[in-house]
């Protein structure tokens, strides 16, 4: 076969091979590379906006869900209080009742963090119509008769300021008094040393006989069981933690119907009492410098308008029974908060405010930084994939052309072997 024919044969085979294999491969690799490039570019441009919008929706839904769970939890505690009225008036049934009513709680134990079944109530007491304690269980132990007090005087109560006797004795049968969250204040210095707020939420219901009011039964809920609904949540993540770190800018908290902070990652923001039973004043424009100098930072959001006018607006809307979200400024940072009312209502917490509300917030600046960092990571990975694809493409094309050349050469040799070089072509005419 002449050199000219061999060249034509090689060109024809190479062209067919190129059309059937190389071009589809190039198009496929191009589409993959373009898709990866678009992914990185879209992530970079839209991460902050898309993630922020998604976060708002997720945080809003989660706030509503947690608020509903808290309301259900409080209604169960109300039922426990009514059940306690039918127990035999004796220390053993009371102590057994306290020991059986338990709930899982993350606690520090033996240098580690474990989930343990902890009694819901730290106190249970039977009080007569004059206010004298008849039976009292505290911390699982029976309080000796010599230590029983007359709680009609608030100074004789656990926190030297509780007025639950006066508030309960005027209720009707079946009604339950629910106190504010009450406990000794934890300042910043003690908090940083590891101390945490330990308070109660007191439930009490009146007892009656033929003569009328005969006394009351009271249960003191360990406030840690209430706080864990928000303390263990990072709003933009589905999992749970032992304690949220507020320095990350993402945390949840709980506010009562009067705007007082009752659960917060930084316990020095929680409303509490001095040792004499008087409340620690919340921060205001008049005392903010002096209180912070003492390491005291109780928050009442109704009084924080001097930090940002939006804060009282949030509280007003939430205590009106509305859910929503808003941006505001706190501590020099732009914050986003989603809030949802806790739909628990009683004689102590009437509608529309109810028990209070759940807030879930994040530091917008830090969140955007994290989103952009994620976008840059995606973009970096996209570029790495692009380089890999280009390298694969070059190698693949080279190998395919090599295969094409070998195939063409093989076909040419096969033809030469079948057709002798001195063979003369035979042409047929019509008669043949």
Summary of the model, kept short:
The chain has about 425 residues and is an alpha+beta fold.
Question: And the CATH topology?
Answer: Beta-Lactamase
Radius of gyration equals 37 Å
Give the count of helical stretches. Answer: 8
**CATH-defined architecture:** 2-Layer Sandwich
CATH superfamily: PAS domain
Strand order of the largest sheet: 5-4-3-8-7-6
Q: Secondary-structure element sequence?
A: HHEEEEEHEHEEHEEHHEEEH
Instruction: Give the strand content.
Output: 15-25%
**CATH level 1 name:** Alpha Beta
Relative helix content = 40-55%
Sheet bearing the most strands, described? Answer: 6 strands, antiparallel
Instruction: List low-confidence stretches.
Output: 44-51
Describe this structure in words.
This protein is of the alpha+beta class and 432 residues long. It has one domain: Beta-Lactamase (2-Layer Sandwich), CATH 3.30.450. Helices cover 42% and strands 22% of the residues. The protein has eight helices and 13 strands. The strands form three sheets. It has a six-stranded antiparallel sheet with strand order 5-4-3-8-7-6. Strand 4 and strand 5 form a beta hairpin. Helix 1 runs antiparallel to helix 8.
Outline the fold blueprint.
Blueprint lengths: L2 H82 L6 H10 L1 E8 L2 E8 L1 E8 L4 E6 L2 E2 L21 H5 L8 E7 L4 H5 L6 E11 L2 E11 H9 L18 E7 L4 E3 L24 H6 L16 H10 L4 E7 L2 E10 L13 E8 H55 L14
Antiparallel strand pairs: 1-2, 3-4, 3-8, 4-5, 6-7, 7-8, 9-10, 9-13, 11-12, 12-13
Give descriptors for this structure.
alpha+beta, 13 strands, five-stranded antiparallel sheet, 432 residues, six-stranded antiparallel sheet, elongated, Beta-Lactamase
